[in-house]
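Worked example

This section walks through a single chain of length 96. The input is the sequence exactly as stored; nothing has been trimmed or padded.
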Amino acid sequence: MSIYFYSMDFNLTLFLPALLEAPFQPYAAWIGAISFSIILLTGGYAVFIKDHWDTETFFSSYFNIPLIFVLYFGYKFARKTKYASQLSNFILPETD
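Given that input, the structure is written out below as tokens.
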């Protein structure tokens, strides 16, 4: 999932001055991130159907979502790092 978001940030950097044209970008990154989110959230939908509750299936389907957030933000907090956008490193050409 983070690959899609970093790809969107990278593509924004590339397309800002219109230096590069790639087919389906940045729309492919957005479509990928949205479709992956839908698959991630609906992957264990069967446990919510009446009389099909299974704690093991629910846990294995949805435990990774909060786990990734805890690991990501825990690392950011412990190491005191911040998100560095590609735009902050990009130097725009001067225009007259």
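What to look for: Residues 8 and 83 are 14 Å apart (CA to CA).
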